[in-house]
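Re: weekly structure request thread

Next one in the queue (598 aa):
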Amino acid sequence: MKEPQKITPHDGVDDQSDKTARELALGGFLSRRTPASTTGIVAAAIMYVVSMSPSLLPRTWWWQGVATGILIALAYGVGSLVGWLASSIWNAAELKVSANHTWVKWSTRALYAAAFIWVVWFLVRSYASNNRAAEVMGMQRMTVFDYLLATVTALVIATAITGIAVAIRGLWRIVRRHARKVMPDWIAGLAATVVVLVTVVFVTSDVLFEKGMEFAYGKFAEQDRAEVPGVEQPKEVERSGSTISFEQWENIGVQGKQFLASGPRAEKISEVTGKPAKEPIRIYAGLTEGRTLEDVAEVVVDEIRRTGAFERSVLVLTTATGTGWIEEWGVQPVEYLTRGDCATVTMQYSYVPSAVAFLREFDKPAQAGKVLYDAVMAELEKRPEDDRPAVYLHGVSLGAFGSQAMFEDETQLLEGVDGAVWAGTPNTTPLWKKLTAGRHAGSPEIAPVVNSGHNVRFATKPEDLQTDIYGRALPTWQFPRVAYLQHATDPVVWWEPSLISQQPDWLQEPAQADLNPDMQWTRGATFIQVSADLPIAGLAADGHGHTYHRELIPIWMDVLGLRGPTVPGNAYKSADGSWVDQQVIDRIVREIEIELYE
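Done, posted below.
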């Protein structure tokens, strides 16, 4: 698509009269071997710089190449369309510009040179900034060779995508050519556009997306029933899936089996803590064919009765992610800190990864969280009020989204549970959004202070639970205690469509965190950057991005009331943290790491 206008020279040099400014600047050889749209090239260059600029997370070369390739292909297409429309309007108006071809040639070359220098300057800045961020987050730095490799990968991917676009354009021309035989040109063009658009939409949505999803669901369902080497059926009666359990081992998916086979037993807890310990209870019900969420929750309640879960001091209702996965770093700290005097209860509601569940089953986590909560609490209310365990909610990522679904505001939340620990809550979570929006003036979005922090507290690190992010002391933390753990560099927390047109508070507030200070908001571009961060959010080192591990130990200690002065109102009647010192915490960390990474 060539949008530049022809140059009419003054000096009577007729051999130049039919050349465009681009051809004058680049010469015949380069102009024939580079993309035809100057506007498209400019847009692609801008998007290349934007995609390489600092974002929430440093990227690996391969993902940088993939993301950049997709983005520059889209930018080139949009730029080409804009250039074509501008050229069409210009030609229709029969506007002409006359200029000396020598002046045009050198001024155009100067423009290309300035653009090249601008691109190189921004790339050098981005390279240094991204590597500084990588050091802060404990991630691997990108070398100059990595940048070159990412660029080559991006060009290959962009070329492939452009080839698809060229094929679609060729289809449009074929349809238009045949249509022109029976109708006027403008109607033929419109008809060709409609036909091609309908065809592309049908192929992408009804064929590629729907059939792809069906295929993916089949594969994920197959994987959910696969046997995992080393994962053995539990023998403890305190665990679902055992030989006397109401939930058969065969009904439980891969992630559920790993959850039930993992975790410390009473002997290990006693060894690590140096104190007598009970066998911790783990209850899990699978999503088998023909079961509704209510059916799954009913199995959970049966398991609660069988195991005597309500006899424990602490009951944790945790909502799984899409595959049924449970974060061990969120469960095992409670088992160690309560010395096994706890029960962890959850259920499976899907078997696809969170990203797929977010696209196709957006409401499913919320439905599952509410169904589980209602079923367990209905059973709990049958017991005398002074003979009930302290009930806590927990969830990470999509699990945090589902775990908050039954509450509309802080009042309902504090009336409904005895505490909660949520990590990496997605920005789409209604309760999270409402609490964040109602924060005190002067408190930042990445760590808001809500209602003076009396019950609900947000933290980018465990220390934020005692003071605000600026180091100012918070009042005594009352019970029930609710903790939101969220990193300033977690794209799951900060991704939202409004990033396209509106600068978020977290990018303009002077809060100290691991957020790259060189990251700036640019209309449209920041949304693209944060979107590109999502697939690699979990690759960040612990304490950054979407990785929440060791921090959950001190978070749980505070929520359970095991640290600091004794405060009235703690539903966990057996709370005693006098025996928990740094050596005990280090042993807990080491044992969890050994189990998860051996």
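Confidence is low (pLDDT under 50) at residues 1-17. Strands lie at 281-285, 314-319, 342-347, 390-396, 419-423, 456-459, 481-485.
Next request, please.
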